[in-house]
Fold this protein.
Amino acid sequence: MYPSEFDYERAETVDHALELLSGDPEAKIISGGHSLIPMMKSGLANPGTLVDIGEIDELTGIEWDDDTVSVGALTTYATIADDDELWDELPVLAEAAHEVGDIQVRNRGTIGGNVAHGDPASDLPAAVLAADATVVVQGPDGERRIDVDDFFLGMYATELGEDEILTGLEFPRSENATTTGAYVKKPSPSSGYALVGVAVSLEVDDGRIESARVAANGIMDHGVRLEPVEDGLVGESLDDVSFEDVAAVADEDLEEFMMMDDIQASAEFRAQLLKVYTEEALNDAVDRLDASLPTA
Amino acid sequence: MSGDTTNGLIGDRVTRTEDAEFVTGQAEYTDDIATSNAAHAAVLRSQHAHAKVHDIDTSAAEELDGVIAVYTAEDMEEAETSAPRKIPSMSTDYIQVEPELFRPVIASDRVHYQGEPLAIALAEDRYTANDAVDRIEVDYERLESVTDPEAAIEDDAPTLFEDYPNNIAYDWEFGDKDEVDEAFEDAEYVASASVDEQRLIPDPLEPRATVADYDSSSNELSIQMSTQTPHSDRHAIAGILRHPENKIHVQVPRVGGGFGAKIHNYDVESLVPWCARELERPVRWQATRSEIHQTSSHGRGLNLEGEAAFDEDGKLLGVRVDGLADLGGYVSSHVHMLTTVLCIEVINSQYELPKLYSRIRGALTNATCLDSYRGVHEVAAITFIERLMHESAKEIGMDPAELRRRNQIPADAFPYETVTGTVYDSGNYQQALEKTLDVLEYDELRERQEELREDGRYLGIGLSAYTHVSGVGPADVCKEYGIFKTHWESGRITVHQSGTVTAYCGTMDFGMGHQTSYAQIVADKLGIPIEDVEIIEGDTRHLNDGVGTHASRSLVVGGSALAESADDVIEKGRSIVAHQLEAPEEDIEFEDGEFWVKGAPERSMTIQEVGSQAHRAWDVPGEPGLEATTYYLPEQMAITSGVHAAVVEVDPDTGEVEFERYLSVDDAGNRINPQIVEGQLHGGIAQGISQALYEDVVYDDNGNMVTSTLQDYAMPKSFHVPEVETVELSTPAPDNPLGAKGVGETGPIAGNAAVLNAVVDALEPLGFDGSEVDTPLTPEKIWKGVNDQD
């Protein structure tokens, strides 16, 4: 409730932020504060300095070019969840952002803070995995671009270095096929975080699944791809594929002894929910193919 | 006078008049009070659930800049002012609680639960006080701990108090066991049920808070605090601190919820005034959320299991029940009464029960102390009997509604003395049940349930018929229970010279709308505009004495005190009018704010004019002023009753429970403000649903509380609670002048069983064992109950 004493610095630019970050080995980046501040209040994080990047305008916003959409690190969940173009082209991201917390949280919390935090129960890790993101970071040696599949390492552990700042995410745009997707979750009744959350992104051409990326939160110590599910989908015709059968192997590559297991839900039950919610996410994604803009 | 209305305010859906300040954030709570020169308090709490404490080193804390003082129990013994005593528990004839089991205000050499206070640090600001606490070094010798009451009474369990080797603080029996066993021998049907009640946290939005100041020249101790019972706190703090009661002033700002957790005396609420007296400067403290979770008394935590015997027609012959309460580290002030006599007094609910035997034990555990929470242990009693009726119906092969119908106390039987000696004053249980079934379209619903099952969908219908003791009295019952202060209430009405009115009541609003409903009573009785009535509570200087708000009593008892004071004001007014208009008193009529001489309506005075005359006092027959005080003591309890019904659909693949409907049919007697009654029902039902499905205090194997924050403790959100439909029934309470029955606690009392019965009913075709339900019924427990059958 009462965090330890810390210094506070406001960064004007990314370079300024990097400089401040290098000045204190115990420094932490803050923007929306919706992951870090609760940890500070409960004593789980005790940063020596908070480097506030919240007013670096260049890190905010959604930009489209021919083959990618770039989302700045400081873009809030609310901005993403309210963006009609994202709902149209990258529904898995828009829906996951919409599922985070409540209105107050979505108005403050940012995509960059979420992804950098690496909370296994948060909603965005699965969504950015499903959306095949590239994570863009800046460090003392310049920019690094990290494939999202290499980014999440463990609970609150990511590929992001202590001296680096996550500046944005890039998502590929589909050229020919139609993209659809969905994110569904079983929230904890206390925190609202995902006991299990499943993100699906499909490219469909002429009724056939051209590519599939399916990922989950809440089940392991970091967001994970569900490759057996993906394998069951690619190449299948939407008319013939049984999502129930495909989802039944959702936990096949996951070691049960490594699964999240706490007072909220056992590993065994999470594995069960994973199958049910995978099927639901696939159904939602396909329903969305025919629908016009979904309601946020 | 009866509850007759004169201007129609009683019974009207008046919009709550107090809400503007709450919804605009203007309301001032205890922690909003500005103080100058205050010391901020923070409390060092035991990190272990069970330990000996060899040494507490406060020197590093004392050295910190801005720290004023740090006190341990030892420091308090050595201090100039008298050290605080332990917090007393009620004394009763049926259960003796030795002072050894009382909760200390500050622990010295042993701690019994995680969070027990060991030291209090005072500093110039709140952060420094907390930093000081972090610097205190404690030398603990950890002891094995036990938080499960069943395990606590095993022979090999760790012992909390040497004089209580089995950790059993009390072992209480009611009824003749042999006689009841005989009834079971004659039975055609026997069914069993158990209620394994989890602990719940009464979690008001506003945590506990206290601000105290001491004036050495007058020896006056002024305390502002968040409480439901200011006068009882004054008395208790006087005892704990050995300070004259008439030198303590308790004043209560707005209170952001209590749910029964702000009744008891706690540690810090006495430590803060102790520090103020010792330091001779203001001291303030506001609990954190985790402090509330770890140290405010928990609710529920009573396991009941037992059986019912029925004859061939499904008529109850007898009930046997065995109970075990999870008391926590000490015996809190009321818990031994709540878990025994106050639990079983409604255990027959609405039914004619000829024989009852019960045994209830209280187990000491290394957990937070147990005590009252909205609905108290009537929740366990009603949940037990209503689960038992549901299971019995299955055993007998009878519809659960029909089984209830066959056993209900007939409407012409009141007053009805139950098997426990409780007198039910009034009610019409048949009407409530039939109304419920009618609104639900029960027969069609059962048909739809059958059809859906064929499609693999599982609909469940749960009924819960309840009784609830509100407005506790009379004096002999309170004496029997051992209640510190018989549950009377005081109410004073003053008509000012201008004709406006101030009414004072010894109750304390913490969300229930007293400003509105009391003003309706006073304004209606006196025939004046509601805007002309101001309601004052929560200040021991404004009103000499009172009991407070708990036990669904404020409207029934406090409201009655105000109603009778209003009658007395009118009588005094009548004497003034008779004198001034030179007519006999018996010829003075009064209605709608106006007195007149019978047969001569032009000879009249308004009550405002009478107020003016009474204060001017140039020509009044008796004492000046127009004021009356009533200490109202109920002669009889007002038994609220009703039937709640939940209709749910359960998904066996995920264990998720979805509400189709929640119906609440309640007889609260005369409703002074039906809208406020419905609001009380909605909130209470949310807590009943939450007990059934969500909330749970969890300790790990070492007695560490895992649910010490709202991240982990599942307080229900709006989206967890369905739309509640309410139906109003009324058999007015015969004893009180308003004909009212208390409704504050009925939601959790009825709601838990309605939901549990609905879930069990839904899962019946899937072989889910309903006889032993482990609440909360989380999705995982439901899924396992369906899929992991032996």
